[in-house]
Amino acid sequence: MNDSMGRVxxxxxxxxxxxxxxxxxISADSGLPTYRGVGGLYNxxxxxxxxIEAALSGPMLQLxxxxxxxxxxxxxxxxxxxxxxxxxxxxxxxxxxxxGCWLLTQNIDGFHLAAGxxxxxxxxxxxxxxxxxxxGCGRSSDDLTGHLSRPLPPRCDxxxxxxxxxxxxxxxxxxxxxxxxxxxxxxxxxxxxxxxxTSASFAYILExxxxxxxNGGFTALIDPSGGELARMVDEHxxxxxxxxxxxxxxxxxxx
Length: 255
Ligand SMILES: [Zn+2]
Known about the structure:
- InterPro entries: DHS-like_NAD/FAD-binding_dom, NAD-dep_sirtuin_deacylases, Sirtuin, Sirtuin_cat_small_dom_sf, Ssirtuin_cat_dom.
- GO terms for molecular function: histone deacetylase activity, NAD-dependent; metal ion binding; NAD+ binding.
- The chain is 40% helix and 13% strand.
- It is α/β, with parallel strands linked by helices.
- It has 2 domains: 3-32 and 84-129 and 173-252, TPP-binding domain (Rossmann fold), CATH 3.40.50.1220; 33-81 and 130-164, 2-Layer Sandwich (SIR2/SIRT2 'Small Domain').
- The radius of gyration is 19 Å and the shape is elongated.
């Protein structure tokens, strides 16, 4: 074990208030393409000639639901075919054993919940891909897999309205409830912030890291590359989350 790992283990072992922040990198280890790049499928533009940010946007869902759903369905199919990995499970165990451990994720695949993270301490800041709900009457529909095998966009059995996932599309606002929950926890402060498989491009990721450092807490990043976020944290472990996280948890709770 190297020094960085040892330090992260010591800090996590002692910490009561912990925030784990996860991004696409953790689910990439499950073979899942990332949201924006979707495994490089798009290279910035869709086969319809639109930037992916336009195809997967709130306005496009209203204007041309079939086109928006074409790309939502690709993400949906990738998610239903994949499963949580050892990294998701290690975070769930950390949360189960540390009642002050919160999880903020950018991912929409629902893998943290599936891996056993407690829903009351999980903030899915970009929403999730299911259950779908009707944009007309609001009724929900659980059967994402079934809808993906039928013509798109999926329609409501009750009113015929277009169904959509409770996900934050481009040009849509982040969920107020999630942001409020994050703010409330941030106000109480964190002893440790651990970012996993993410980059620094969002304020809601940068802020807890910078504030925690200012308040004398400890921050770390687990990501093979790291980018600009690597220079903002106390320790950077340049490795895959699905390798590192289970090792961390094994050392923190050796029994
Ligand atoms: Zn409906």
